[in-house]
Write a structure and sequence with these properties.
- This protein folds into four domains: about 80 residues; about 100 residues, Kinase associated domain 1, KA1 (TATA-Binding Protein), CATH 3.30.310.80; about 60 residues, no CATH class; about 140 residues, no CATH class.
- It is about 35% helix and about 30% strand.
- The strands form five sheets. Strands 7, 8, 11, 12, 16, 17, 18 and 19 form an eight-stranded mixed beta sheet that branches. Strands 6, 13, 14, 15, 20 and 21 form a six-stranded antiparallel beta sheet that branches.
- A hairpin with a 5-residue loop joins β17 and β18.
- α2 packs antiparallel against α4, α4 packs antiparallel against α7 and α7 runs antiparallel to α12.
- The longest helix is centred in the N-terminal third of the chain and has 28 residues.
- It is elongated.
- About 15% of the residues are buried.
């Protein structure tokens, strides 16, 4: 056997596909456990495990060379497997030569010795399969005083379903490749006073990175100071017209987690061990089993118990349940139009999808009538006061109480104060200051604090994924193809009727595929039909 045939056998083997798929699953598992494109400083791994993660670049597993090479090999394996199945189907379309020698060289042959007329038995056998909508395949009968046929059930060859879902996997890999090369994503925050732009193209795609790498090999590098300019017809301009947030009282669990898991299990398992003198029948229905069931029911259902959980809420706590953005969308050479984006209802526009992912606030803070700048971490200091102030929760929107009534919340900001501690070993206690409503001046820590111009903004995440359409096509193709192939009943029936001296011999060979296929049922029904 030459090397080319050996390589073809390896790549056309289903075993190779299974092995490659298992290895790919390991990569997918690693990518699910470790934060993709994360930082090694943010994971808890240490020692040898951390060295393995760094050396193999497992935090970038989906864009690493090992994963890409393995995916390319798996793609080649599926292409060769699909070609191999297609060649097999084309060979099956050629006429089958039926003879006594053909059946003598096959396994699982059923031989029936029948009494009757040769012509009548031949007609009954052929009629049996035709009435069940079997299709006759091309065949050639070799020999005298014999009659034979090849029948298959179904509208088409079951091997085509194998090609069908192999082709769907190929489409999936092509879609994943397109996604890997051309997909990009980002996030934009929009406030009412300033429109924001969302580009339909990006310089950070893997395709551009590959092109730049190839150009660098030939010494054609672009200047570092060259600015990436997005044409006007490749951008969307979004302006925030209105942003609304709905709040309800924040639910809380009473007496949790003070009791903890272990005390609760000890309470449930607070039973006596069964007596050793009990018989087997008594042990099954002994008192300790009923007590265990009673303890479980008491823990779950007894609302008066000291260790039970109960849900409560207060009217001064706010929990966001939904938020909606009303935006003005402006494209190049087109009129402005209003659109709504809310959670689980994204906007799809020119190949890009915008999701309502979060919200943000901004406000002006004044200390003793002087404006104060807040750092990115939300903290700020005031001259003359030891300690640090910190921005807390900002609330603005519509409140829904437990009775379904609605009311507009007067916007306010929570502020916290943490005093400075001389001994760094001692923890500093954060103090909750009063709520500061919009436009209201209050005194805290000896200074006058005012919060003005509380404005809500929307945070939209966007993604451009040109390979997603192929995945939407390939996924149902693979699912229904595999389902139809696995759970169908597929039969290929070869039979030969031989005229003997005093009787007729029927040779039957049945190839079955599918979980529900049962060749014994066909043999049994055919025997009853020929016995009539």
């Amino acid at each position: 056997m030459n090397k080319s045939n050996s390589l073809y056998r390896i790549f056309s083997s289903t075993k190779t596909a299974v092995i490659l798929f298992i290895i790919l699953l390991v990569f997918y598992l690693i990518g699910s456990v470790l934060p993709y494109k994360g930082n090694c400083n943010n994971i808890t791994a240490t020692g040898t495990l951390l060295k393995i993660i760094k050396n193999l670049d497992l935090l970038n597993v989906y864009s690493g060379p090992w994963f890409l090479i393995l995916s390319a090999v798996f793609f080649a394996n599926l292409i060769v497997c699909t070609y191999h199945r297609l060649v097999h189907i084309l060979k099956e379309s050629q006429p089958v030569r039926l003879s006594t020698a053909f059946f003598s060289n096959q396994s699982n042959i059923v031989k029936m010795t029948l009494n009757g007329n040769f012509t009548e038995i031949s007609e009954k056998t052929e009629s049996f399969f035709r009435r069940r909508f079997y299709r006759r395949k091309p065949s050639v009968v070799v020999g005298d005083n014999i009659h034979g046929n090849v029948f298959v059930n179904g509208l088409f060859n079951p091997s085509w379903t194998s090609v069908f879902y192999h082709f769907s996997i190929v489409l999936t890999l092509i879609g994943c490749t397109i996604t890997f090369l051309f997909a990009f994503e980002g996030e934009v925050t929009i406030f009412p006073d300033k429109p924001s732009e969302v580009a339909l193209i990006s310089k950070d795609t893997n395709w551009n990175k590959c092109v730049n790498s190839v150009r660098s090999w030939f010494g054609k590098t672009e200047p570092a100071q060259k600015e990436w300019i997005v044409p006007d017809d490749k951008k969307l301009v979004l302006s925030l017209k209105e942003f609304g947030i709905k709040y309800t009282p924040r639910p809380k669990l009473k007496d949790y987690p003070r009791s903890g898991f272990i005390p609760r299990m000890n309470q449930i398992w607070n039973i006596q061990k069964p007596s050793t003198s009990d018989t087997d029948e008594e042990k099954i229905f002994s008192s300790w089993l009923f007590k265990l069931i009673g303890n479980i029911a008491k823990t779950l259902l007894d609302t008066k118990g000291t260790h039970t959980l109960s849900v409560f809420s207060t009217e001064d706590t706010f929990f966001p349940i939904g938020y909606t953005s009303r935006l003005a969308l402006k494209e190049h050479d087109s009129s402005e139009r209003e659109i709504d984006i809310e959670v689980n209802s994204p906007l799809r526009q020119r190949g890009i999808t915008l999701y309502q992912s979060a919200y943000d606030y901004k406000f002006d803070l004044f200390i003793n009538d002087a404006k104060v700048d807040i750092k990115e971490d939300g903290k700020f200091t005031v001259s003359g006061i030891d300690g640090t102030f910190e921005k807390g929760e900002i609330i603005k929107g519509i409140f829904y109480d437990r009775n379904g009534n609605t009311s507009e919340i007067k916007p306010f900001v929570k502020l916290y104060y943490t005093p400075s501690v001389s001994d760094k070993k001692l923890p500093s206690k954060k103090e909750d200051l009063v709520h500061f409503e919009d436009g209201q001046v209050k005194e805290a820590k000896g200074v006058k604090i005012a919060v003005k111009n509380i404005t809500a903004g929307t945070v939209l995440s966007y993604r451009h994924d040109p390979g997603l359409r192929l995945l939407w096509i390939a996924a149902p193709m693979f699912f229904f193809g595999m389902l139809y192939r696995a759970w169908g009943r597929w039969y290929t029936v070869y039979y030969l009727i031989e005229k003997a001296c005093q009787n007729v011999n029927l040779y039957l060979r049945i190839q079955k595929k599918g979980i529900w296929a049962d060749e014994n049922r066909i043999i049994k029904n055919l025997s009853k039909r020929l016995a009539l």
